[in-house]
Sequence to fold (610 residues):
Amino acid sequence: MNYQQLGNDIIQSIGGIDNIKQLTHCATRLRFEFYDMNKVNTKKVESLNGVISVVEKGGQYQVVIGNEVQSVFRAIQSQMKDVPSTSHEESDEEKGSIVNRIISVISTTFTPVIPALIGGGMIKAVLSILVLFNLVNEASSTYEIINFISDAPFYFMPVLLAYGASQKFKTSPIMAMTMACALLHPTWSGLVAAGSPLTFFGAPVVLVDYASSVIPIILSVWIMSYVEKFAEKYSPSIIKFFLKPLLVMFISVPIALIIVGPLGNLLNDLVQSGANYLNAHVSWLIPMLMGAFQPFLTLTGTAWAMTPIATSQISTLGYEIVNGPGMLASNIAQGGATLAVALKAKDENLKSLASSSGFTAVMGITEPCLYGVLLKLKRPFVASMIGGAAGGIYAGITGLVRYAFVSPGLTAIPAFIGKNPMNVVHAIVTIIISFVVGFVASWILGFKEDAPQEEVVATVSKDEIVAPCDGTVKPLSEVNDDVFSQEIMGKGIAIEPSTGNLYAPCDGTITVCFPTGHAIGLKSKNGTEILMHVGIDTVNLQGKYFSPQIQVNEEVKKGQLLLTFDLDKIKEEGYDTTTPIIITNSKNFSSLQFENDTTIQHGNKLISLD
Fold:
């Protein structure tokens, strides 16, 4: 695959490099945040060869690539270096709901840290194996060196998280990391160990050990972002070079030590206590729920919500029970359900996709099978939940724990090797139960394969589309919007309307009616899919001057009034009123003919399709 070409195609489909506010990636997905979502053509992104799916969850736009995501990420990132930085204020719409904003903060903060956590976790797993086979003695210096190397990412967690948090809150990474270093300074650690009461200009300072902590530094960087804006605004330009960092450090670090840090630490302890309580009284509950519902957490982007708990437990306890055991059951069950599809499917393309993505899932990476197979076929999706729940119950009852932060699968079995020699045995049994139950359930429930492509195309027959409004006809290439002019959404034609009425261009069913009223989609009885978009960027009017006369799923007749709009007012607002009429499934037609009359009346023939 040409990763540079795929990167270029993605860039063109999302509105260009300058529309990217932030780009990160995980094991299988590119994670974007944009300045203007209206410039992003999701259908075009999904159609690209190499893209498995697109997910808009957790405050991010996620493009699922699969195992080669790093290559595509590098291809896009290499072009971002030459883009001049621009200032964009974050709108309320961009901020989204509180839940999405919290999850977006967690995902953006933790994504850059994951490689370090995996590296440290796997070194710890290797050390456990060396000790298990008596290759390294726990009293030796070799053990001590390997041990502190594996502990480093977790001990200095605040410093690593400060970087990711600074990216999210748009503040200086160096200043954020310096503040984290202050929280871990040996002098502070010594004061905490001594336990003597402290004050700062008379204000009491709570003694907290911030090593391996998670929430305190995220909250502290958030506060620092506002301090930095204040310092930037009020520092005289002639002395800003040294006054700004002075104010940021002198204000932010004491606030972190006196207020934000202790509050974050309390939240950290409450979350851990809750997880420990559930584990002590209903040990099977968390792994069962995680095993069953992990696919939903992945789909909604809320899987990141568990990351702070898991990393905090590994840092303080040396293992975690909230995320890993249930994820192991879920990942393997998804792989089992998908491989059952591979064996049972008749379509060669589905067989190939299910085979490769099912194998990847049992290795620990589930997005390809989740989006490419399970979600589309539905019943195997349910089967994977059943298998995950079954494996999760066993994992919970036996007290399975994960010693290292890695994506659970067959390749991650060393992450379950620790002081308890039976833990890895329980992990293997969990794998067997999850795979067998997921596979069998998928086989029994079955699935319905999609009809071959040629049959789908055959359902679309000859059709005639009439002009939906009065006005002047112009080719689509002259429309002042690349999404339309470059036929990204499909072939079509445009009309510069002379009146404020939009009529049905054929008999059919309304499939789309935007709340803003500026665009209407219709599917004809012969299968032609038509999008009528009144004006360019008129979505920004938020429905002002538009009055839809229909609703979604309504049956309409050719010539029926669909929409009225105040043409003059829209022009006065400065908007181009050119109205593209797009055949969004034009690739299914062998020929499209457009009328070239300069002026046209609604009801006159506009497009012929065959």
